[in-house]
Design a protein that fits this description.
The protein is of the alpha/beta class. Helices cover 34% and strands 11% of the residues. It contains eleven helices and ten strands. The chain is globular.
Length: 356
């Protein structure tokens, strides 16, 4: 198998792999930008990019414009497609292509109008985070004041998501909201990019109760190599791929299997833009990056923002090797990289012509 050597020769940022690995990798959280090298996006070892389809916390019209952009990209690049069914993802792997799964990292585009969920589902959106860090009309955000659960409108949103086959994502929302959704929803949920709070007590990570409840109901937790969430308690240096795999080990030990573990890298295709700041001021949300910024600085485009040796999509063959060195078998690796997420998608997603 090519490119699985420990020293990773000829390493480059999102380098083109000489040979693909045998696994389907569903990356449940990425960002992509206009300068992304889409012509080579199928050559980085990732089968399905869970792309943030539009910026969070914006209106319906702008969200619609950005959502449709991915259909344009798929039309322009024959190596890419928008996946709305599991067979699209398996087909992409078989044909040496990659695909986008359209994720929303916020539900504010709905703004009290339930039919907008169906409109976006019909346009290809298949996963939705109800709130991005701040409280909104649907539920609480993980960084906002209080541990706010689902609103009355939020309960309607959850039921509508179940009707459509829209997978709900517990990332970025309040702890209480995640527990209420998992308790009330007919379908399991995903945490697309979170790590165990026991190893990194960051407000953005999730605790053992959330992990167990997600798994018990058939959901999946996408573990993330983004430095601020991967850096362990007390660690004052950049984490490595071995630290990232420690999070996988913790989850597998807690649950007793690898059937509810995925990967959501939070990496980018193209150049991550600078964060913008409102001159009128910002709410004093907890800074989830503060400790990590002291270690590596605040350059959001730097690969140092991610675990060493897993700071590029094209590092996944090396991650596969290191998982094998930890004793994970072929079936475990297949589960972690994509089969668990595909099983979840198969259970939740509905063909649009069957939505009543």
């Amino acid at each position: 198998m090519s490119n699985l050597t420990p020293n990773r020769p000829n390493r480059g940022f999102h380098r083109v792999l000489e040979q693909d690995h045998p696994y389907i990798w569903v990356d449940s959280c990425i960002q992509a930008w206009p300068d992304g090298d889409y012509a080579n996006a199928h050559k980085h070892g990732c089968t399905a990019y869970g792309v943030t389809a539009f910026h969070p916390q914006q209106n319906f019209e702008q969200s619609l414009e950005e959502l449709m952009y991915w259909h344009l990209i798929a039309r322009k690049y024959p190596n890419l497609l928008v996946a709305t069914r599991v067979e699209h993802i398996r087909q992409a792997k078989a044909e040496g292509k990659s695909c986008f799964i359209l994720f929303s990292q916020d539900g504010e585009f709905a703004w009290g109008k339930l039919h907008r969920l169906e409109a976006f589902y019909r346009l290809g959106m298949r996963v939705m985070i109800p709130a991005y860090n701040r409280n909104n009309l649907i539920c609480g955000g993980v960084l906002d004041v209080g541990d706010v659960g689902l609103s009355r409108f939020g309960r309607l949103v959850m039921k509508e998501a179940n009707r459509l086959g829209l997978l709900l994502d517990g990332t970025h929302i309040s702890r209480r909201a995640t527990l209420e959704i998992m308790d009330l929803s007919e379908d399991p949920i995903i945490f697309s990019h979170c790590n165990p709070k026991a190893l990194n007590d960051n407000p953005r990570n999730i605790d053992d109760e959330q992990i167990r409840m997600c798994a018990e109901r058939g959901g999946v937790i996408g573990l993330v190599n983004w430095g601020p969430l991967c850096q362990k308690n007390g660690q004052e240096e950049r984490p490595t791929v071995e630290d990232f795999i420690d999070h996988i080990d913790y989850m597998a030990d807690l649950l007793g299997n690898t059937l509810h573990i995925g990967i959501g890298s939070d990496m980018s295709l193209g150049s991550y833009p600078d964060h913008t700041y409102d001159p009128w001021g910002h709410p004093d949300y907890p800074n989830v990056m503060a400790r990590y910024n002291r270690v590596v600085g605040i350059n959001f485009r730097s690969p140092l923002r991610f675990a060493e040796n897993f700071d590029s999509f094209s590092d996944v063959p090396y991650v596969i090797e290191r998982l094998g060195a930890r004793g994970y078998k072929h079936e475990d690796i297949a589960n972690i990289l994509g089969e668990n997420q595909l099983r979840l998608f198969e259970r939740v997603w509905k063909p649009i012509d069957t939505v009543i």
